[in-house]
Write a structure and sequence with these properties.
Layout lengths: L4 H11 L5 H12 L7 H11 L9 H19 L25 E2 L29 E2 L2 E3 L5 E3 L6 E6 L2 E6 L2 E6 L9 E6 L3 E6 L5 E4 L3 E6 L7 E12 L8 E5 L3 E5 L3 E6 L6 E7 L2 E5 L4 E4 L4 E5 L2 E5 L4 H4 L6 E3 L3 E2 H11 L3 E4 L7 E3 L1 E3 L4 H8 L5 E5 L3 E5 L1
Parallel strand pairs: 2-9, 7-9, 12-13, 23-27
Antiparallel strand pairs: 1-24, 3-4, 3-8, 5-6, 6-7, 8-11, 9-10, 10-12, 11-12, 12-15, 13-14, 14-17, 15-16, 16-19, 17-18, 19-20, 21-25, 22-24, 26-27
Length: about 400
């Protein structure tokens, strides 16, 4: 087969792990065109001829199961109301894909590969610790302070409060006003611990998806001039439209987001340097507690900190809501940022040992994988792990 010089150059850069992120995107675009001399099959044949790849010494049946789990992650998005644009990454189909590795450590490519330490064993038999992925579950704190663990609660009526029924159905909590409540406003709080996610339908019909380690406080009935809720952590909102009663989200007492009817994601964890508000549809006004406000349009992402805010146009929607669609999206993510995501989803304590390289990662993984399978993929980036009893994950160079 004949390749143009540019394509051959990019394939060589891919195979030798020296490609930049821009070159990987360019290569993916070229191959996706599927033109003569640059089809997926022809490119893979060229790579196999010039850079044959050996699969890691893992059990074939096990890795086939893992691969199927990753491929099945595409179906998760189809079950969700928010469907990011489909994207098939060519680099996932060669080399790393064969080894079930969808994440690449870009900075680690430049560390000496000729003197690489052998990977530390993650799972060496059934006796070694492992961690299951997170699941649906939450804790509901009622207005009187009583708490209910929703993981073990069956479908049906949970409680009645201030003229509102609360029903658990299909892993979602539904608030339905039956009459106009009287007396003081009553508030409930939904909390998702590490390793849990949950969905709640608020009294006005607004749907909220909560990521792990998050909390949402809200009234059991929206009887005031505004619909106000408070969030810490991460959540996706699909707000029920009501122009006469604006919907407002207060975030960590640092920011307020006002909407009339829209879909947006808020990432506001206390252990992250920035909060991110990503608008999928509609319009929102974001106001900071220390001054300043701006109106976001669909595709905008606002990054806010104690020093101010910055708006990015045409933001990566797929990355922002990947968690809601059952995926980790690690595009351009640093090692420590990634570890905070894994820490929340797998309910871990992460500890760094030694001089761990500053690695950036690219790619996607299913959130349904066991921790050991995720870590096995990450080990190809010159960062190694040891999982100890008590869900303590040691990160090593």
């Amino acid at each position: 087969m004949e390749h143009n010089n540019r394509l051959t150059y990019l394939l060589d850069r891919l195979a030798t792990h020296t490609a930049t992120a821009a070159e990987l995107d360019e290569l993916t675009a070229l191959v996706d065109l599927d033109q003569p001399g640059a089809s997926v099959n022809e490119a893979e044949s060229w790579l196999e001829e010039h850079y044959p790849v050996s699969l890691p010494p893992y059990d074939l049946q096990h890795w086939t199961q893992v691969a199927n789990q990753i491929l099945m992650s595409d179906k998760l998005a189809a079950e969700s109301e928010i469907k990011p644009a489909a994207r098939v990454h060519f680099l996932h189909r060669w080399g790393w894909a064969a080894a079930v590795v969808l994440v690449l450590g870009a900075a680690a490519w430049f560390i000496s590969h000729h003197h690489r330490k052998p990977p530390a064993a993650i799972v060496a038999g059934n006796a070694q610790p492992d961690a299951d992925p997170g699941k649906n579950g939450a804790i509901l704190t009622l207005a009187d302070g009583s708490r209910m663990v929703l993981d073990s609660a069956g479908n049906g009526l949970i409680t009645r409060q201030n003229g509102t029924t609360v029903v658990l159905k299909n892993n979602a909590l539904q608030y339905t006003p039956e009459s106009t409540g009287a007396g003081e406003m009553e508030y409930n709080t939904i909390t998702t611990p590490k390793g849990r996610q949950f969905q709640v339908v608020l009294p006005d019909g607004t749907k909220v998806w909560l990521n792990a380690a998050s909390a949402l406080q809200f009234p059991v009935a929206f009887n005031g001039a505004d619909r106000v809720v408070e969030l810490s952590g991460e959540a996706y909102f699909d707000v029920s439209k009501n122009a006469r009663q604006p919907f407002k989200v207060k975030v960590l007492k640092k920011m307020e987001i006002e909407v009339l009817g829209t879909g947006f994601n808020i990432n506001a964890y206390t252990n992250e340097l920035h909060t991110y508000t990503t608008l999928v549809e509609g319009a929102v006004r974001v106001s900071l507690a220390n001054g300043g406000s701006t109106v976001l349009k669909p595709g905008d992402q606002l990054k806010a900190s104690n020093t101010g805010m910055q708006v990015s146009r045409n933001a990566d929607m797929e990355k922002a809501i990947a968690w809601k669609n059952g995926l980790f999206n690690f595009e351009g993510v640093s090692l420590k940022e990634m570890m905070r995501q894994l820490e929340r989803w797998y309910n871990l304590e992460v500890v760094y040992e030694g001089n761990v390289p500053d690695v950036k990662f690219f790619g996607e993984m299913s959130r349904s994988l066991k921790l050991s399978d995720v870590l096995t993929g990450l080990e190809r980036s010159d960062v190694h792990f040891r999982l100890e009893e008590g869900r303590r994950l040691i990160v090593m160079p």
